[in-house]
Amino acid sequence: MKNKGIIGSIIALAVVLIGVFAYQMGSRQTDAAADKPAVKTVGILQFISHPSLDQIKDGVIAGLKKEGYVDGKNIKVEFLNGQGDQSKLNSMSQQLLEKKSDVLVGIATPAAKALANATSDKPIIMGAISDPVSAGLVKNLKKPGGNVTGVNNLTPVDQQIDMAKELFPNAKTVGMIYSSSEENSKSQIERAEKKAAEVGYTVKKYAISSSNDIATITQQACKETDFLYIPQDNTIASAFQTLINESDKAKKPVFVSVDNMVKEGGIATVGQNQFELGVETGKMAAAVLSGKSDPADTPVNVIDYGDMIINEEKAEELNITIPAKIKEEAEVVKGE
Ligand code: TRP
User: Fold this and answer.
1) Where are the transmembrane segments (predicted)?
2) Which residue has the higher pLDDT, 291 or 4?
3) How far is the CA of 313 from the centre of ligand 1 (A)?
4) Which helix (H) or strand (E) holds 10?
């Protein structure tokens, strides 16, 4: 009888000890989980590869980092590139949602649109979109209203055309080449056409339906006009050398819309720093991650300024004298 009592006490004690031990283990585990918050995922979708979009993507990563979000440490970046293919963009948008992205970033209009078609509740940050309202991405730049906000790079078209007028005072006709499938280009061309007419140019427009058209359309445009004007067009940017090869043969200057295209053989632009556009985009994605911003009431960041850039080598090649005023104000580069 006595033994049974002792055994009973030992068992009871053991049960209590095991209970206490298990409880402590449990609380230790929850402490550990509280110290280390779950790593959040940033899903980035880029439309196509070309120097400008590649720089924007690097800028996005740098912008996130500036705000304390480092890939591989406290965030995971899932990056996909649609290589200019609409069906890829759609399936990649689904993949980024399946990876449970906490915030999505769409670089260039077709990528941002594919993401917006795939989800109406996950936050989406637009990376350098030319015209978010016409593209149907936001209702209103000041009050987006839905799950999309971000950076609108409004190319300084008026300043570009003014600069072109100073560079080519005797030119009469300007040829504008753009992709018929890119809304971002169409909206820029509309603005450029209006301004060019105001300064006295006759405008001829040339639409391409894919990069396969670039060579023949450029030849034709060079024959029919005094100089070319190229908008921020992704298809042209991804095959820019093809265009420059033809314009060089015809000895016609190409006024462009981004700094990278000046380095690649364009004559000049008033352009925006593509990396910085990405940094601003990354910062906006960080604000969503930290809970500081909700796209519905976060105004779109409209970046509408740029810097004058001129390619001195190309000017010499084409016998164009750079006016003193431009030489003073512009960043002078050589071709690459
Ligand atoms: N703004 C373009 C769009 O909405 C994307 C873009 C950004 C771009 N920078 C560029 C295109 C430079 C061509 C060249 O799609």
Assistant:
1) none
2) 291
3) 25
4) helix 2-35
For the chain, residues classed under CATH 3.40.50.2300 are 40-154+274-303, 157-271+306-333
Q: How far is the CA of 233 from the centre of ligand 1 (A)?
A: 6
Predicted confidence band of residue 335 (pLDDT cuts 50, 70, 90): confident
Q: Across-strand partners of 254?
A: 228
Distance between CA atoms of residues 155 and 314, nearest Å: 23
Instruction: Compute the distance from residue 161 Cα to the ligand 1 centre, in Å.
Output: 18
Share of the chain above pLDDT 70, in %: 89
Indicate the fold that domain 40-154+274-303 takes in CATH: Rossmann fold (3.40.50)
Model pTM score: 0.89
Residue-level pLDDT at 7: 59
CATH superfamily of this structure's domain 157-271+306-333: Response regulator (3.40.50.2300)
The alpha carbon of residue 178 and the mean position of all alpha carbons in its chain are separated, in whole angstroms, by 18
1 contacts: CB under 8 Å, gap ≥ 6: none
Share of the chain above pLDDT 90, in %: 88
